Structures are given as C-alpha cells and as structure tokens.
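Ticket #4471: structure export looks truncated?
Reporter: QA, pipeline team
Priority: medium

Steps to reproduce: submit the single chain below to the structure queue and open the exported record.
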Amino acid sequence: MIRWYAAPVAALLLLVGSAAASAQTRHLTGRVVTAAHQPIPGAEVVVDSSNGVRTAAETDAAGRFELPAEADGPHRLTASAVGFSPVIEHLMLSAEETVELTLVLPEIVRERVTVVGESRAASRIPGSATVIGRQEMERAQIATDDVHQILRRVPGLNIQEEEGYGLRPNIGMRGTGTDRSSKITLMEDGVLIAPAPYAAPAAYYAPIVGRMESLEVRKGSSQIKYGPITTGGVLNYVSTSIPSDLSVRANLTAGGDQTRKLTAGVGDSYRNFGWLVETFQLRSDGFKRLDGGGDTGVDLENYMAKFRVNTTPSPAMYQELEVKLGRTEQLGDETYLGLTDADFGRTPFRRYAGSQVDVFDSAHDQYQARHLLARRSWDLTTIAYRNNFRRAWYKAQSVLGSGLADVLADPAGHADQMAVLTGADSAPDALVVRNNNRGYYGTGVQSVLGTSFSTRSLGQHQVEVGVRYHQDEEDRFQHDDGYQMLGGRMILTAAGAPGSQANQVATATAVAAFVADTVSWGRWRISPGLRYESIDLNRTRYALDDPGRTAVADALSTEVNAVIPGLGVSYEARSDVTVFGGVHRGFAPPGPGAAQGTRVEESVNYEAGARLQRAAAHLEVVGFFNDYGNLLGRDSLASGGSGEGDLFNGGRARVSGLEASAQWNPAARLGWASALPVRVAYTFTQAEFRNSFESQFGPWGSVQFGDQLPYVPRHQLYASLETEHKAWRARLEGFLVGRMRTVAGQGAYVPAESTDSYAVLNLSGEYQVTDGAYVFAAIQNLTDSVHVVARHPAGVRPGLPRFVQAGVRIALGQR
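Actual output as written to the record:
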C-alpha cells in the first residue's frame, strides 16, 4: 500500500535531483599542443565566465588539462605557456555539457620572425594578410619555383615577369612600382633581405622560393612594423624550420630545356638541440634560342644550415639560440636585350646574336643568429644578421652608339644597328658590353619585446616594441668593353679599365623603432602602431680614372627622419563574420645622392573590408585607396634607363582598387570522401597621376593629369580547382592578367606602349606510391600561350612557353 506521504517525498526528491542536475559542474577538458601537435606541459589554462568567476589549471606531462566551468553562457578561455603566444577562445556553454578542446599555441619565435604567423592568425589581423602555408607551398613547388607564379593567388599584388623563372622578382603591391621589388619591404625570416635595403633596394637578389616553407604577405596599416617601405606592403620568405623529429625531404625533378632540379633537406631535434641542412639546385639550358647557338638558361646552387640550442622548457623561463648560414651562387645566361615587335611575331623566343656574351654571375652569403628569451608574461627576440652579395651582370649596353631600347623601339630608323645586333659583320668596338660589377652588404641587429596582459576595463593587450640598427652599402665598380661582330660571333676588341664607367659607393645607416598594440575588447580588436625611421644616406664618387680610389671626386649626404603612424580596427559582427578597416602613412626613403628637391615618397593609405570564415568556406573582400603626396621613380637599367640610380619626383597620384579572395570546399559540405577545394582571387586596380609634369624617367616621360601608371593591370584573376582522393591529387589553375601600359598614358592602348592581356593555365598532379614516396608531374602554360609580359628594359619580352616536368618526392618523418 502506498503511504500518504510517498507522493510529496517523491516530488521533493525529484525537485532536489533536478536542482542537483542543473547545478552539475560542466567540465572543460583537452590538450595544449604545439603547431607540430607535440604536448606542452606546464601550460596555464584560465577560464573566465560571464558572471566573473575565474578558474585555472596547469597541463600535465601529456599536455592535458581539466577544469570546471560553473555557469551557463559565454566563457573566455586563455591558454599560455613560456615560449609560446597565448591563445584566446570564446565558448558558449550549456547545462550538463563537457567540452573537449585541442588548443594549438604558436611558438613565440615564429610570431616574432614572421609577419603573419600561422594561417589562422591571418583571420585575426585587422588588415589584409595572406599566408601561403607549408602544405600549400609543397603542392605549389612541384609545379614551379617561380615566386611570381606562386604569388598569383594573392590578391592586391602587381607582378611584372621578366626572364620566365622569377629569379629577379618584380613585385609591387596595391599599385606601387614593380621594378626589382624596390617599392615593397622584402624579408626572410623577419630580416631585411634586399642587397642594400636603404641604399639600393632593387632586388637583384631574392631568396630561392624553391626551398621556402611558406610565404607571407601583409598590406594595410598593420604592416608598418616592417619598414622602411610602407607604401605597399611586406613580403616575407619563411625558410624551412628545424623539424621536431627526424625528417628527410627531397624533390628530384627533370623537365624540358634540359632542366634538372634538386631540393633536399634533413634535420632532427632533441631535448636541447636541433639541426637542419638543406640544398636547392637548378640547371637549365633555357627556353630562348640564341642566334648561332648557345645556352640561355641558368645554373644555380643554394645551401642552408640551421643549428639550435635551447634550455629545457620550464614554467618560469625558456631560452634558445639559433644560427642560420646560407650560400647561393648563380650563373645565368641572361640579358636585357629583347625583340622588336616584328621579330616577336615571327620567333617570340629568339635571342639576337648581340647578346651572346651576356651573363649574370652572383654570390650571396647569409649569416644570422637569433636569440629568444621567454618568460611567462614577456619575451625578447634578438637577431644579429649580415648579408653579403656580389654580382657582375655582363650585358649588351649599346650598338653603334645607340641605346638598345631606342634601337628596338624604332628598328627601321636604326637599320645598321639592327644588322649588327642580328649578326652582321661590324667595325671594332661597334658593340659595347657593360660589366655591371657591384658589391653589396646589409648588416644589423634588431630586437622585439613582446608582452601580453589583460585588464577588466581595457581588455586584452598584445604589445610589441621593436628597435633595429642597420647599415648597408652598394659599391659600383663598372666598366665597358668593346666588341666586333664577325661571322656572327662577338670578338673582344677593347677591354675597359675597372671602374672607368662607374666608380662610387653609396651607404646608409638607419635606426628604426616601432611600438604596436593589439587590443581585444569584446568583439573589437584595435591595433594602433607607430614607427620611426632615422636614416643617414651618403654617396661618394671617385674619378673614373682612379681605380685605387685615392681621392674623392664628390660626396653627397642626405638625412631623413620620418614618423609613420597606423591604426587598424576590426569588429566580429558574428562568430564567422569580421569587418575591418585601417589607415596608415605610406613612406619610402630616397636613395643616397638624391638631387636637390627630391622628396621622400609619401602617401596616406586607407583600407576597409570584411571576411567570412566557415569550416568549408572563406571569403574576403577589401577596398583600398592610396593617396600619394609624392610618388618616386628610380632610374635603373631594368626600367630601361641609364642605370645611374637617379630619382624623379612624380608628384601626386591616386591608387584605388578592390581585392577579393574566396576558398570553398563543396566536398566537405556534401560529406564526400574526396576533397574538392576551389580557390579564386581577383584584383581591380585604378592607378593614375593627379598632376602633369615632364620626366626623364623612361616609363613616365611626358605625364598629363589622369595618365595611368605603367605596369599596373586594371584586372587580374586567379582560379584553381583541385581534387584529392586517397593516394592521388590533381590541380588545374589559371590566371588572367589584363593589359598593362608600359609607359604612362590614357585613352586607347598603343601596342608599342603596352603588354598583352593574357591567360595561362597550369596543370599538376601527384600520386603516393608508398608511405613517404610520391611521383608527380606538372605542365606550366598548358595551352602554350605566346604573350608579351614586358617591354623593358629593351624590347619585347615573352612569357614562359609550355613547360613540362616530372619527378619524385620523398617525405619521411615529421616536419
């Protein structure tokens, strides 16, 4: 029989049970690991709930943690460890929920020597940032080692191809000049890498992209940390990191034009020591056909070694010292001599006999030591570096007293000169070949102090303070030789005295500092920053008949001081939608010996955009507007000038445009076993002068208000489709580049002053034979498109024709 009190007691027990259930503690569990998914013991995990309750835990030897979260609603989780950047996650918890997390902490050292960091970090930056990460680079490198081709997938870049291999890149950003990438900041592992970044920023040397682990591009206000040049942006080459375990990597490739390539590396890490050695080698006969026969290719060797010693990580402090050594040698049968339009139409890959002795001979040595000291709340990264570069580019300069550009622009009016260039017999000294013999160095030391802290009223702060002392130099010691053409062969008839064409030294000493803060406050991220540059530039000239440099002929000095502010703001409108904007001052210093009245390049740059980030899709759209108070042009042989390095004021100019990129994997959405990623990038750019002037700078000339800037295409489009299933994958990609002016102008395009609009398709694929072994094949320019990519320095230059290669890839162990 049921007692009368049974029902009330049962109800009371049910009520108590329900209350107990609703008060049941939610648990947060998981692991804290490195980017290589190695556990991080001793990491601190802190959870702040919406009602102000804070709980904390420390990870065990396996990197695991468990802690309670006693309230429903939003929670903020912060994970931090000595030697790593903190990570913040926002969680929404409900009743009786246990959450399992894997928290990946980026290494502090990677954050300090990269300009973006890991790929996920790009989505948190209040500005435009792109990372071509390790996996994407591995896939791209089986198809090409041309940095131009790999960067086509990044919107907002302007690229001028030259010799078909990308060995001397011409890259601009958001309408800056492309000439030798001298209007962007080039870095390797966070260190300035152009031969003389202040005195002579033209990139006659650039890192070998075939051995790089990733590429980073940063534009907008947040890139002012990486000056001196802030008008466009920064490109950072990230070299292969020392692996966390024994790793062996090798790519062996053979292709058309007797091309052979080898990329190989081996490395390992232990508790307190790590190492890596790596090489990249390229041999090719070249795709151009020299009159009378001969190679038009390249012979390149690159070697790199890294060594690291480190303390055992502890909750209190961590230190490491890494030394990097590198050597690159290049012997290229390359010329500045192009073709006339008529000859390009008949034989686009021809090279005239007048370029048969042209050769680029260079060597680059790299020395770098990086020290990291990390504590729980701050870290200090210091890098000492030196880069030595020497190059002698021996190339045709003039024929019968006429410059090559003038001859090829008007072959009918220079019939005698064209005859000699194409192999007709001549008098002695009819051909002048210049030995552009130059030596460079760049050396310095830089430190970045980083710290993070949080306050209830002012949010989470990530502060960086950096300082750099830098010196660099360009030493020109050039001469001209005279040649006679006989029977289609060039014979030396007059050897010039060393230093008789150019005998000068340009130097720069710079002190730079910046302070930047990223404030996370609710859904807002605000990134104010300030940069300061103090630069002393000097140019010393010696008499052309004084190779011993016994007396100074003339000397000029210039001092430049600049304060460069920037501000970026982003707002998380939804968990998967972020809007952002920014404004900063653009700045580029003049070179040594600038003429009276030459001003620095300066602008005010704006951007605004939005990004959508979901599991299977990523979309980003950015509008930009750069308002130049003064645009600078630099005379160089690469731009078709005399090569003296003179600077020209271009006055006011405006560059505006739109960058859009999208990535989507419909297979993930549909639950397919195979991956099917789709990638699209589009850039629209409108770049024009806002004043009229006369200029001796070849690509500008007589400029009228509204003239469009040269080598800035209005439209660029990149698209790729990839499929991946179990042991194989394949990718079809293509890019479309709109027509570009090669001389400033407006109205209808003039064929002699513009390039072609062209489209190129590339196809590549890979098959896994067994664990760690793959075979691959790739075809560049699948349709064998013949197109004009440039008209400078002298004459029409073709893009790379169809190129087929295949090889074997070995990947053993962990990276």
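Status: closed, not a bug. The export was complete when the record was re-opened. Leaving a note from the reviewer for reference: The chain has nine helices and 46 strands.
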